[in-house]
Amino acid sequence: GTAVTIILIMNxxxxxxxxxxxxxxxxxxxxxxxxxxxxxxxxxxxxKIKTVKSVILSAIVTLSAMIMTLPETISVFGYVSVxxxxxxxxxxxxxTVCIYAVIFALVFSAVFPFMGNILYxxxxxxxxxxxxxxxxxxxxxxxTVSMPExxxxxxxxxxxxxxxxxxxxxxRRNMLRLKEMQDKILKE
Length: 188
Prior knowledge:
By secondary structure, the chain is mainly alpha-helical. 81% of the residues lie in helices and 3% in strands. It contains six helices and two strands. Helix 2 packs antiparallel against helix 3 and helix 3 packs across helix 4.
């Protein structure tokens, strides 16, 4: 919220930038939808296998960002990516490792400049992997689906429904906690 406010104070016309709107909506999807759902999944504890849990939580983050950007994506581009969840699962960890590799190489290169190129090699290799995955899945004939105009309205309704469900679940959980506290007070 602070970043959005500062950006809009500095440049009120940023609201007309598609990249800005997609970033804000995706961030809202992650913070407002993915985190509450992920927290609830973690609380339940029904997923004991760490890898499965990690994959499911990563997919939830991707889907949440995708759903929140859906109306903007449909209205601006007219199509939606079908493979984005798969590609994100395949590249998200690689991108994280690549960022750490570049930071390490930058720091190490400042001290030993002659070693810089050697240390950048893993980052270049990972970058080629990421580009290969994106190119492969992006070139599949079913990678995107054209969306008719009415799907914009359906996606807006779906977002409001998701927000309503999340708020209803939060209210229900808070009511249950309050009841537990009241029962505990009555017993004491």
